[in-house]
Amino acid sequence: MSATIENSLADSCRAIGQRAKAASSDLAVLDTAVKNRWLLESADRIVAATDEIIAANSLDLAAAPGYGLDAAAIDRLGLDAPRIAVIAQGLCELAAFPDPIGEVIDGFTRPGGLQILKRRVPLGVVFFIYESRPNVTADAAAICVKSGNAVILRGGKEAMHSSRKLIDLMTETGKACGLPDAAVQLVPTTDREAVGHFLKMHDKIDVTIPRGGE
């Protein structure tokens, strides 16, 4: 890789990290009602766009054999109306959960009467690396935002079209619901070097979660 291309990739990754960090400050204090509205309306939007999602997924399925995926992996990659409905149902179920932010999980009172409380707070920015399962794209985005965190999603290249469609739908809904810009971002490149750039971004990313195989 040439130095020019490498610098361009690094700059692109850093811009994503900067946007996520800015969004995390607003997400940390975002009203629960806004987060839940986003989850419920995203669920409705995903179901309404079932045909669009299946069309995007068909592109991934067509390319899957070229990536060396076996039959079981291709099955996990595939989306149909029932599976899309399950993704939407998961968002609705998450909306019904209590908001963890601000929950008091421990505390005590000092002899002088001073109360010390331990409350749940967001992590900040989550960098989420996962394999080629489109449902994880929606699940991870939803869980992170519900818990007050911005998320940068780096899914497998085999599900890029499906993941892009899901995130487009969820970010469009987020704008209408008042979610901070860049609350949810999908890494737009399949270049593996991008992961290395994000892992070095200690000033922007607070925690990295790898999910799946190697």
Please tell me about this protein's structure.
This protein is α/β, with parallel strands linked by helices. The chain has one domain: Aldehyde Dehydrogenase, Chain A, domain 1 (3-Layer(aba) Sandwich). It has helices at residues 3-27, 32-48, 50-63, 71-77, 81-96, 134-146, 160-177, 193-199; strands at 104-109, 115-119, 125-129, 150-154, 184-186, 207-210. The strands form two sheets. Strands 5-4-3-6 form a four-stranded parallel sheet, sandwiched between helices. The chain is globular, with a radius of gyration of 19 Å.
Order of helices and strands: HHHHHEEEHEHEHE
Strand elements, count: 6
Under the CATH scheme, the architecture is: 3-Layer(aba) Sandwich
Gyration radius (Cα, Å) is 19 Å
Class from helix and strand fractions = alpha/beta
Binned, the helix content reads 40-55%
Q: Write down the overall geometry.
A: globular
Under CATH, the topology can be stated as Aldehyde Dehydrogenase, Chain A, domain 1
How far the N terminus sits from the C terminus, by CA atoms, comes to 24 Å
Strand order of the largest sheet: 5-4-3-6
Which percent range describes the beta-strand content?
A: 5-15%
Mean pLDDT: 94
- By DSSP (H or I, 4+ residues per run), the number of helices equals 8
